[in-house]
Amino acid sequence: MTAADTANLQTLLQAVLAGRDQPLEQAGTLPPEAYASEPFYQLEVERVLRTGWLPVGHIAQLARVGDYFCHDLCGELLVVMRGSEGQRAMSRVCLHRWAELLQGSGNCRRFACPAHKWTYDLEGRLVGAPAMDQVQFDTRQQRLPEYRSEIVDGFIYVNLSADAPPLTPQLRELSRELAPLAPERWRIGVTLDYDCPVNWKLVVETFSECYHHIGAHPETFDATYPGRDSYVEEGRVGWTVLHAPARHDAPQERLTAGFPLLGELSAQQRQEFRVYLVYPYQLLAVMPDRVYWFCLQPCGAMRTRFQAHLLLDPRAPDDPNYPQLLEAERSFYARFNEEDIAINRMQQRGVTTRVARPGRFSHLEKALWQFANYLRQRLDMPAV
Question: Helix/strand/coil (H, E, C) string of 95-143?
Fold first, then answer.
């Protein structure tokens, strides 16, 4: 960066940090520039994303030995794979001359570089390197780099730093709350892929509040779950939760999609959905019979890719009407995602205007206030 770029970044960072310790009743949003500045995004990568536990998948994607899926994370090319020794997250960059070894998802017993056919086993060990017998080279000493990973409540998290504290203890209270729903048994019914020209924080924030139901979702959500009735619990160290109660007179058939209930639910749980945000961007909306899960991949200051997964009880496919129910839910899922993305696109255009200023939080945006404070705490730490 030039000296001017560095100065601008420091000015923006100080503007972000200036909002520390404000009560919700007086608090404002992050500065608009925080959603558009590439240097600021790179600062987030170093201080927030690379130091945090980031969700990359669910164990349902690794049902059999040899199953794998690829995931890009802060410039790193990962493959998450189930081998004979369990799940692991590894680099998918060949040790020879850096070609990408795998793409997408699938199942394999071994995988080879498309350039020179260097071959690896499911644990990332190099087991074949053609035409290397005339140089000093021992394949037995070669293995793909592995990233720290943990499985919590069925979700696979990866950490790119060497010294971050373990995740499982941080989410113990959340795990107790989700345990009756058996999240490790959930299965993926639908996956929708999106590549959006928006900042990752806009996706997180929209997912984490129901205030926008009145504008973005008057039919899909507000008619059943009025945003004005939503509320957010006090934040925990690593996560927070929002409750969205249904109207007292909402027909029962509007509260489920016809799939088996996720567990033994209380009367309250049958009449609401809950939105969990595990920092920095694990996003779960838990309905009585299904879960909407966004798996993000921030790609720059103004680009975010994500997969929107529909998670279901494993008994769901046993219903003879499952194909029709699934197609109806796919259509509904796509509809409200497009409604949110349309709003995010408008916001992204707005933050780049010269007259844009920080906004004032509503009490309905308590989760966003908590998220902003989490970001300020992480951004105020030195890079590692």
Answer: CCCCCECCCCEEECCEEECCCCCCEEECCCEEEECCCCCCCCCCHHHCE
* CA 251/CA 247 separation, integer angstroms: 9
Q: How far apart are CA 356 and CA 351, in angstroms?
A: 6
The answer to whether residues 293 and 308 touch, using CB atoms and an 8 Å cutoff, is: yes
Which amino acid, residue 193?
D
Report phi then psi at 244, rounded to 5. Answer: -125, 90
Is the domain spanning 20-52+172-379 CATH 3.10.20.310? The answer is: no
Contacts of 219 (CB under 8 A, 6+ apart): none
The answer to whether 20-52+172-379 and 65-159 have equal CATH topology is: no
> What are the extents of the domains in the chain?
20-52+172-379, 65-159
Burial bucket for residue 140 (CB in 10 Å: 0-12, 13-18, 19+): exposed
Coil, helix or strand at residue 151: strand
Cis peptide bond N-terminal to 280, omega within 30: yes
Is the domain spanning 65-159 CATH 3.40.30.10? The answer is: no
Q: Give SS3 for 31.
A: coil
Of residues 30, 101, 55, 95, the one with CA closest to residue 239:
55
In the β-sheet with 105-107, what is the strand arrangement from edge to edge?
53-58, 155-159, 146-152, 86-91, 76-83, 67-73, 105-107
Q: And the tokens for 296?
A: 């993000």
Q: What share of the chain is helix, strand, coil (3-state, %, to 5)?
A: 35, 30, 40
> Could you list the pLDDT tens digit for every one of the 384 residues in the chain?
788 889 999 999 999 999 998 999 999 999 999 999 999 999 999 999 999 999 999 999 999 999 999 999 999 999 999 999 899 999 999 999 999 999 999 999 999 999 999 999 999 999 999 999 999 998 888 999 999 999 999 999 999 998 899 999 999 999 999 999 999 999 999 999 999 999 999 999 999 999 999 999 999 999 999 999 999 999 899 999 999 999 999 888 889 999 999 998 999 999 999 999 999 999 999 999 999 999 999 999 999 999 999 999 999 999 999 999 999 999 999 999 999 999 999 999 999 999 999 999 999 999 999 999 999 999 997 654
Alpha-carbon torsion 192, 302, 34, 5, what sign? positive
| d(C-alpha 41, C-alpha 35), whole Å | 8
